[in-house]
Please model this.
Amino acid sequence: MNGHVDKYGRALVTVSIRLSKVATTHDVEVWIDTGFNGDLVLPQNLIDDLELPPSGTLKAVLADGSEVALQRFVCLIDWFGNERELEVVANNGEYPLLGVGLLAGYHLHINYRSGAVTIE
Model:
């Protein structure tokens, strides 16, 4: 999987997300966040647009140490040619985040000189 580093220094890749096996696939550019130990965070407005079904809540500790309850939703993603069901976390942020839960077992390489991002 290939991506790029944007002008703000964020490592970005595109993942394909959908509601179900028969639903339309949506390509979403996500920011790789190695400080997030889950799989995927999506902004609530994107979750609403994709009409993802809720699956409960999750207690989380944010970077500032505060604890919050976050909504979880179910989706399917294409991850290296395999369809994978995920529970994604909703937030009120602006950017989708890909965490280390999806990166486990893969090699992440970010080349800030060339702007290339690869996951293999």
In short: Strands lie at 2-5, 11-18, 26-32, 40-43, 54-61, 67-79, 82-91, 97-98, 108-111, 116-119.
